[in-house]
Fold:
Amino acid sequence: MADNEEYFPRGGKKPTTTHFKQNANFLGAPEKGEKKKKKPKKKSEGDDGYLSDEGTKEVDLSFKNCAFGLSYKTIKEGLLVLCRVKSILETKIIVSLPCRMIGSIMACHVSEPYNKLLEAYVNDKTDKVLDLNEMFRPGQYVAVKVLEVKDLSLMLSVMPQHVNGQMTLKDLQKGYLLQAAVSSVEDHGYVMDIGVPGTTAFLPKTNTNPEMQLDVGMVCWCSIKAPPSGGSTVVTLSNELSALQNSWLRQKTSGPLIPGSNVDFIVDTPLDNGIEGHVFGDTTAYVQRQHADSVKGKKPALGQKIRGRLLYVMPTRNTPFLTMKNIFESTFPDLDAEQKLKDGQIIEEAQVC
Structure:
């Protein structure tokens, strides 16, 4: 984002009082009142360098307790997180998590259909099995469940029963985003495993993304085109790019929120490291600085309703953290195009945060 500095000014002396007013650049610098020297505050464990010491003590207390992201100390087993594929090895996938963390997905934690295919291959019952680099690509977004945390090592899973397993039939509403695995390839589409007990999911070939070649065991994003109705347990899906882009979670589900879900975010307060707002009426949520973006070329205004994709729900406070980035801008993200800085490049007049 080219105008980060206008969003998040830093430096200068710290005011004793801070007031924000809405203007054309609402995320601009606060008004300055009486100035007073203060001793520098010791950074907390979760401070990733974007936290600010400005503002009133009341704001600072809430900010320090709520508005910093995940770390290896705060991440918990069972947490659902939106990640990006970093690299693909022979037996595992390395992914990047928010807040500069790294985790791994073993081949046995991709999907149940893939495990059955691997077992059949070992027993010489099939001679066809996809390699991991045929199923995943660097830059791809995936929703994962944390299976194990051991120091700086995170074991993760993309299996639908792990990510979606706590959902119920009532949660399966039209337009809802899911991560599903291909169970079998049929004449007119694909039988899909969505991991929700008591359901059968089908992806018609007429509703598939032509840029993707699906096969048994593969995991892909899908949007619900037709939810179960009239006592039926059949869910009709679509993985067309437009369907994923327009997916929308209208209300809370009975289980955990699925990472990647598109929710309405109401802008409440500008912070030095992002934006504070609320979702689902009264739930405080945050967009951190690195995940903020313009909306249709304009900066968000106080009280504006914008769409944000869920990254994770902070386990200590049950607080959602969102991204304004368009994670479904293309089927296969171009990481080289996204990478503004190249290896070995010298940064002139770089600032230390």
Remarks:
- The longest strand covers residues 141-150.
- Residues 4-70+261-323 form a domain with the OB fold (Dihydrolipoamide Acetyltransferase, E2P) fold (CATH 2.40.50.140).
- Residues 207 and 238 are 5 Å apart (CA to CA).
- Confidence is low (pLDDT under 50) at residues 1-66.
